Amino acid sequence: MRARATVRVEAVAPEGGEGLLLEFLRAYRDVVQYIVDEIWGLKKVPSVKKLHEMFYNRLVKLGFRAHHASEIYKRAREIVEATRKNKGSKPVLKKLTTRISTYDYKVDFKAGTLRITVLRCCWVELKLKPHKHLNKYLDGSWRLGEIQVSYRGGKIYVYLTFIKEVLLREPKAIMGVDINFNNITYTVVDLDGNIVSMGVMPFRGLSRAMHLKKLAENLQKRCPKSWRFMKWARRARWLRRARNILVDLAHYIAKRLVGVANEYNAMVILEDLERLMVRSSNAKHSWELQLWCYKRIQSYIEYKAVIEGVRVIYVNPKGISKKSPKGEPLVFVNYKFAKLGGAITTRDVIASWNLALRGLQQMRGSRVTLSPNSPRGEAVKNPS
Asked: Which domain holds residue 42?
């Protein structure tokens, strides 16, 4: 199986190079917008081959190389398809970002330089700043694929995509993972369905992120017209800090869970929550759903597991916290606790246990899909 990891590195352009790069990024964005406008009204999105016939000559006259044109077709087509799938209005592109194929750049990690082609076959050399996560992808087992160059806030960012072929191991156990607002619960069973281990990992990042978001929202309510002009207003900083808390904890939780799966050589079972309702009559619950980063945690678990050769599958989570995993009567004490046989346990444990058993049944009785048919397929990356 192919694993992908993306590292974001800040770069600096020499004097005169930044202007050429910005000219290229603006031209790239404008021509993608042009193609989006042209094909938006069509009933069926044209294939890449058809787009090549329609726009290639015009792109070459504007100074783009052949591989630039190929990436432009793909980008415009992806935008239109994704927007139509989400039933949105015609997209308007604002960000300055571009994809660069392997034929249009040269990188020297020892010297810390990256040369990319821009308009009219000119080259721009960027100086890459040191990054602590970059060295682990330079051991020879990873190869560099296409890259992405972005300009925002007066800074240049390069997204390096590394690819590695991984041989997935045959599992000797199954680990069900139940992701909740304040904890992540896992249960490991052997191939006969007997419990090997279980545990609970606290997740306190959601409450901390909610506090920071409420600070930002309250500030905007108090000063609806002037908050953005106040030097002391820290709304953006609060929101950025809330996001960083959730991202860091998602990485930490995913690393610990994959470590447990490695220890028992277990296949990881996750919930397929694609149709999760994001609205609730309860105000607090609605806030929690807005910030709940279960998809991020799942995507981090998936890519970290794939790199380690651990299999990951998704199962339907319907009824996992209401069904007895042992066949014994399940009596609910309250919303959180339940009595199973002669022991009292939580519904989170019941859910993770049933997930493990459901994954075991799927592995035995049906074809196993390594990832769901959802946008998470592109999330096998390592944001930095």
From this structure: 2-165
